[in-house]
Each structure stands twice: as C-alpha cells, then as structure tokens.
From TrEMBL:
Residues 175-209 form a coiled coil. Keywords: Coiled coil, Cytoplasm, Cytoskeleton, Metal-binding, Microtubule, Phosphoprotein, Repeat, Transferase, Ubl conjugation pathway, Zinc, Zinc-finger. Signal peptide: none annotated. It catalyses: S-ubiquitinyl-[E2 ubiquitin-conjugating enzyme]-L-cysteine + [acceptor protein]-L-lysine = [E2 ubiquitin-conjugating enzyme]-L-cysteine + N(6)-ubiquitinyl-[acceptor protein]-L-lysine. It is found in: Cytoplasm, Cytoskeleton. It comes from the Eukaryota. Its main location: cytoplasm. Its EC number is 2.3.2.27. PANTHER family: E3 UBIQUITIN-PROTEIN LIGASE MIDLINE-1, E3 UBIQUITIN-PROTEIN LIGASE TRIM36-RELATED. One of its GO terms (cellular component) is cytoplasm. Residues 428-513 form the B30.2/SPRY domain. Pfam families: ANCHR-like_BBOX (PF22586), COS (PF18568), fn3 (PF00041), zf-RING_UBOX (PF13445). This is RING-type E3 ubiquitin transferase.
Length: 513
C-alpha cells in the first residue's frame, strides 16, 4: 500500500491525484497543478493561454500544448478510478503500510490490550469508544463522528487514520514521523548545500572567465592597434621615399630645362645682334662697302646658326613622369583582406611532377595560399595495402617526418628500391596546420649487375657485368675475401642486397662452349 500511495501522489501538491492529466511522456499531473505551472510561467499582464509549453516536473520533458491548452491533453481515467478505490479502502483501515508498521511497533512497546480510547468529539455522556485516531488532527473519533468529520474527499483524504491510541501516545507516534522528516530534510539540505557550493565554484569560474575575456580582448585590441599603426608608419615611410624620388626627378628635369633655357637666351641675344647687322648691311646702297661687309656678316651668321644647333640639341619636352608608374593593386587587395590569421589550406601533391630513383623520391606540391604558410612538414611511410591508409593516417608512430621545409619540393634519400611509399604534406603557420591528401609514389628497381670481384676463378664476367661464362683457362685471378673458391661449384654474386620485400630477376642460361 505504501508503494501504491506514492505512485498515486502528485509530484507538485504531494496529494493524491485530482482530475489527473496524462502527459505525452506517460507521467501524470493534477489539472490544477498543471494550471499553476502555467501561471508561474506567465509574465506581467500575460494570459495563461499564451503559454504554449511547459516541462514535466518528473522527467523534465517539454510538453507542447495545442490551441486548446490543458484541455487538449487526455484525462487519465484509469488512474482516477484507482485513486477512488484507494480512497474507499483507506477509510476502513490504516492509510499505508508504513503507518501500520509504526503503529505496531508503537503498540508493542507502549500499549496494553486493556486500554480503551474514547471518542473525543462525541457530545454523548459517556462518550462512545473510538474506532480511529487521526494523527493529523490528533483526535480520536467514534464511527459516527469519523464519518461526520472526515468525508471521503480532500483535504481529509490526506489525513492519517490509525487504530485508536491515547492522547499521551500520539506525540510519541508523531515523533517517529518527525524523525524521518528530519532525516529527509537534513539529507535534502546537505544535497542543496553541496549543490550551492558547486554553483558558487562554477560562478567564481565564470566570473574569472569573464575577467579573462575582458583582459584578453583588451590585449588583442591593443595588439591590433599596434600592428595597424606599424602598417601606417610603413606606408608613410614608403610614401616619403617615393615622394623623394619624384622630387629628385622634378629637380633634375627642371635643372636640364633651365640650362636649355639659358642656352636659348644666349643664342637669341647673339642672333639678334647679327640679325641687326645683317639687316643694316642689306640696306647699304654703296656696292663696294656692301661687298666688303657682307662676306664677313654671312660667315658669322652661318657660324651662329651652326653653334645654336650644337648648344641647343633637340629639346625633350616630356613632362608626364611616365617612368614613375605606380601600381598598388596587389597591396590594396592584401590590405582589404586583413584579418586574423587562419590555418592554411591543405597543399596538393603533384604526382605528375614527382621523380624517383632506386633509393630517392623527389616530392613536389602546391599551395593556394603560399603567403600565409610559414613552413611545410613532409611525412612518409611504406605503403602495404589500400586498407591500411586510414589507419596509417591516424597513427603518428609509423610516419617518418621531415620538418621545417621552406620550399614546395623535397628529395627523400635512403629509400628501399622498388617500394611504394605514402606521402603527406602539412602546411603550417601560427594559426594551425592542414595536411594534404595521401599520395602514393614508388622508387625504381635497382639494376642488377654481376660483381667481378666475387666471381670464381673459372668464371669470366663480361665487360658490362651482365653475363658470365665458364673459362677453364682463366686461373690467374687475384684472391679476394668475397670471391667464390669452392671446388665443386662455381658462383658469382650480384651487386643488389635484399633486406625486405619480394624481388625476382629473369636469368637466361645457354649451353657451354
């Protein structure tokens, strides 16, 4: 009965459900309690109908209401019928198993079977025997008075009715419940204090974080101002330098023009004097005197004309300063794109540009934003199958790493011949790094040649070290530690040393001569 009563109790009013609503989350709630929840969510001058959702007090599931509000939710008719039966059963017996246990424990320790309890509400004299004691009211009732004072409806359905006990024993029974309530209150209070302590710690961290945000934001703003001021200073310096070049070009041009102006004036003055003398000679009527002076004046005019062409060459009147061309379009674009630095885009391995030998591979790659890349990092490992590419990419232990590469290509030495490798390139700057897609490159197979120093005395190796033949007459070869010396078999070693992988060579054998 105790478990049943807890299941029939509303989590809000802690009383038996009254007109219970069946929520979508399968929990129940009194209609009036649900209405009070909506009222608590209303702001000032706001109607209850404006609230469209609330949380289930048991599981915190959000209940969305239709236009009908709470009337749109289903009534839990089955739960209401169970409550009605439970209330009828509670009138004729103890309210709950817990009460029965407390009463039995109390009766065993404090009461005797001979004690009788009289009704404390009767007007009769003598009073009738009590059939129930209400722990809530602390009064004992006979059957008639109980029916009159405790009808089967709220709030009396919540009263605790037990077997009749004397007044002196009710306080002791109440103490048992008070002790439980005290323990529950202390437990809840401890949990609340603990939670408040956690919230205070969290609040202190949040306040400290806010302070750090303020400090860091101010630091970043100051750094931004400093960097922008530095850019402005650089622009002003470059402006002054370029302006100085323009002024120097202006002074040089004006100096040349002033020299040409002075020469022109000097030539004009000399020419004016000769012109005046020539015109005066042309007006001479005496033929003898004219012939005497005309020849001299003609020579001087010719010399003056020639000297003016020498002193004043073709004048360059270019005043447009075409050689001082300004094009700041790239710089303007860079300034327009000023922003916080981000990690560079992943580079791309250009397999068509990569080259390989039997023990080296030169990897080439490109990057869309080379200006923001500080350095590259090359990673490579042996490729053993398509299925392990993902696992290799996620495992850093199996990779060989070449850091701090400044160019967009790198040659890896000391590789195994005829072996396929996986390469990845990482672009790095102050904001982070991004890696390229894996690229697969393979070293060439090492050419196989015979080693003359290891050939048996009876074997002769060709000049290209590719063929060998038996030569019984050749027995004057010097002895070396690596030479085959067996009497029963002849041999010669190759120059390829195999330490891993699978390799094969085709050998052509022909008859001996």
């Amino acid at each position: 009965m105790e478990t049943l009563e807890s299941e029939l109790t509303c989590p809000i009013c802690l009383e038996l459900f009254e007109d219970p609503l069946l929520l979508p989350c399968a929990h129940s709630l009194c209609f009036n309690c649900a209405h009070r929840i909506l009222v608590s969510h209303c702001a000032t001058n706001e109607s209850v109908e404006s609230i469209t959702a609330f949380q289930c007090p048991t599981c915190r599931h959000v209940i969305t209401l239709s236009q009908r509000g709470l009337d749109g939710l289903k009534r839990n008719v089955t739960l209401q019928n169970i409550i009605d039966r439970f209330q009828k059963a509670s009138v004729s017996g103890p309210n709950s198993p817990s009460e029965t246990r407390r009463e039995r424990a109390f009766d065993a320790n404090t009461m005797t079977s001979a004690e009788k309890v009289l009704c404390q509400f009767c007007d009769q004299d003598p009073a009738q025997d009590a059939v129930k004691t209400c722990v809530t009211c602390e009064v004992s009732y006979c059957d008639d008075c109980l029916k009159a004072t405790h009808p089967n409806k709220k709030p009396f359905t919540g009263h605790r009715l037990i077997e009749p006990i004397p007044d002196s024993h009710i306080r002791g029974l109440m103490c048992l419940e008070h002790e439980d309530e005290k323990q529950n209150l202390e437990s809840n209070l401890t949990n609340l204090i603990k939670r408040n302590t956690e919230l205070e710690t969290l609040l202190a961290k949040l306040i400290q974080t806010c302070q750090h945000v303020e400090v860091n934001a101010s630091r970043q703003e100051a750094k931004l101002t400093e960097e922008c001021d530095l850019l402005i200073e650089i622009i002003q310096q470059r402006r002054q330098i370029i302006g100085t070049k323009i002024k120097e070009g202006k002074v040089m041009r004006l100096r040349k023009l002033a020299q040409q102006i002075a020469n022109c004036k000097q030539c004009i003055e000399r020419s004016a004097s000769l012109i005046s003398q020539a015109e005066h000679s042309l007006k001479e009527n005496d033929h003898a005197r004219f012939l005497q002076t005309a020849k001299n004046i003609t020579e001087r005019v010719s010399m003056a004309t020639a000297s003016s062409q020498v002193l004043i060459p073709e004048i360059n009147l270019n005043d447009t300063f075409d050689t001082f061309a300004l094009d700041f379009s790239r710089e303007k674009k860079l300034l327009e794109c000023l922003d916080y630095l981000t990690a560079p885009n992943p580079p791309t391995i250009r397999e068509e540009l990569c080259t390989a030998s039997y023990d080296t591979i030169t990897v080439h790659w490109t990057s869309d934003d080379e200006f923001s890349v500080v350095s590259y990092e090359l990673q490579y490992t042996i490729f053993t199958g398509q299925a392990n590419v993902v696992s290799l990419c996620n495992s850093a232990d199996s990779w060989m790493i070449v850091p701090n590469i400044k160019q967009n290509h790198y040659t890896v030495h000391g590789l195994q011949s005829g072996t396929k490798y996986i390469f990845m390139v990482k672009a790095i700057n102050q904001a982070g790094s991004r890696s390229s897609e894996p690229g697969k490159l393979k070293t060439n197979s090492q050419p196989f040649k015979l080693d003359p120093k290891s050939a048996h005395r009876k074997l002769k190796v060709s000049h290209d070290n590719l063929t060998v033949e038996r030569d019984e007459s050749s027995s004057k070869k010097s002895h070396t530690p690596e030479r085959f010396t067996s009497q029963g078999s002849y041999g010669v070693a190759g120059n390829v040393f195999i330490d891993s992988g699978r390799h094969y060579w085709e050998v052509v054998i022909s008859g001996s001569t």
